[in-house]
Structure formats: C-alpha cells, structure tokens
Amino acid sequence: MDVKDFYYDLPEELIAQDPLEKRSNSRLMVLDKKSGDVYHRHFYDIKEYLKPGDCLVVNNTKVIPARLYGSRENTGGKVEILLLKRVSDDVWETLVKPGKKARVGDRIEFGEGLLKAEIIDVVEEGNRLVRFEYEGIFEEILDQLGQMPLPPYITHELKDKNRYQTVYAKYDGSAAAPTAGLHFTKELLQEIKDMGVNVAEVTLHVGLGTFRPVKVENVLDHHMHSEFYMISKEAADMINATKENGGRVISVGTTSTRTLESAADENGRLTEKSGWTEIFIYPGYKFKVIDALITNFHLPESTLVMLVSALAGREHVLAAYAKAVEEKYRFFSFGDAMLIMDLSEVNNEL
Q: Is 107:130 a contact under the CB 8 Å cutoff?
C-alpha cells in the first residue's frame, strides 16, 4: 500500500485560518460509505441522521496551552518548547526549537524565571525530555505563560483560545484539539440528547504524531506515536448497551475512533480501561465498535485520511475530497465536517 495512493491536490486558500462565528454553521458533507454518494448540508442538520437509541461518542480531552517561549539561561537565546506528553509529574516529552542547539543539561527560563526547565534526555525522533521547576501549581503557570498549540498550517492569531476547545472539554492533556467535536454547541448537543440519542464521553490525549505526514513509501512501515486514553465504566456500559439494542455507535472524530477500537475485545465489547494506544487504522481494517464517523477533512497522505478510507473505501473518500475541493469546503482544524455512514440506515428523506 503506497502512501501516494492517499494524495489529493488541495489549493492553499481552502485551508481554514479562523473558526466560524457559530460552531454549528460549518458545512457538512454526508458520505454514504456503501455507495459513495455525497450530500451537502450544514452541521446543524446532523440531527436528521441520528435516531433514538444511537450513541454519539465524544473525546472530552482538553487542549493545554502547550507552546512556551523562553530563553537560555546562559546565552539569552530564544527557545520554543511544545509540550507533547507528560512522562511524570514535572517531566514532559517536548519538541524544542531550535532543536540542534537543545543539548542535555541546557537550562531555559520562561516568564522572567516564573518557570524554569532543564533538558534531561534526547528521545525518539529528536524529541527532548524536559524537567520543569516552579513554585505553585504547574497548570496555573502554564495557563499564564503558554499559548494554544495551533497547527503550523494556521497562520492567523486565535482571538479566543476557547475556540480551539470543544464545548465538552474536561481533562487537560492534549497538544492538539479533537477537531471533529469543535462543530458542536451545547444547545445542539442538548437537542440531540432530547431526541433519545445517548452521548458517551471517552478521553484520548491527542499528540502531534497523529497529524505528522507519513514519511515512508509503504504505509505498512509507518509507526504511530503512542497516546494515552481512558474509558469509564459508564461509557463502556452505554456503548455496549447501544450495540446490544441495535443502535448505532457514531464516533465523533478519529481520536474517539482510535480509543474505541483500541480498547474493545475481539467481539467489540468494552470495559472500563485506560492505557496507551499506537493503533494504526488503514484500509483492510475491520471495525469492531463504530458504525459511523463524524470527522473533518484531513491532510493529504496522512494517517487520518487512511483511517477514513478504511471506513468508507479509498475511492469513495478521495472522490468525496475532490468534490469538497470543487465545492470549496473549508479544510483541516477550523474547517468543515464530514459524516460517514450507511445512509440506508437513515429513515429521513434526504
């Protein structure tokens, strides 16, 4: 399986730079995973594709202000640190720029010494382990000094950092937002619940590895970075009951999908569980839990395009993406959404 099989041409002007004023006003492309047919809607129309007894699964991770700007204690040289994942209480795996100058033993300070750090090791792909020193509560200091870690393809400044959080974000730990959930408002979620649709919350702390391009020609040679996930007993029971009662499990985002598919047993059953996942889903994968997926439009040749292709078929997905380009949909984190499901299961007229 060649990585080039998942390439599509995207004009740069279609990369969304700013969130819409209202979250649920984004466009929604509905893709029938069986036929490949597409329909053009808005996200607030999502209710028409849901039925009582269905279960939406959302990722309640919260993005931390993970980008820090500081200076070297000995030279005053500028340093940028991006927090990737917590290794222990005060030790984080990070991405440091400029990387070549970031040596073990180097010390960095932020906010005129409010926060200090020492590089203690070099790990996979040149990432650095950094130990932080501070007085008080780390999260409060980070909230004061850190900036939201917007992806590099977003060049505009984010005016309201809450717009890079879902409305149900709960547990700190992500270096990037689970972007499919950004389209939901509290009001829309409540309307969905009032329809008799359950909403189950799981947690996966999103790392940057998910978004990195695949650098090997053969997809099967690609190695996913590990990400931490948690599923509560309540969520597991709700999802299991949905399957048993003939309802559909509709995953909100690729991160929720990876959580469910990692944690499920061979029969697709879930239990209360936490751990690290490196699951890599690409065409040929047999889904154990999810029936449908709400997602954004993803980068060419990315593992996320491969995941959605596993659900709907590569040809259907690439044809839908070509149509999205033609119709000038907005792409990536602040862009529009896609719903992938078997539309024969939807009773409403389209």
A: no
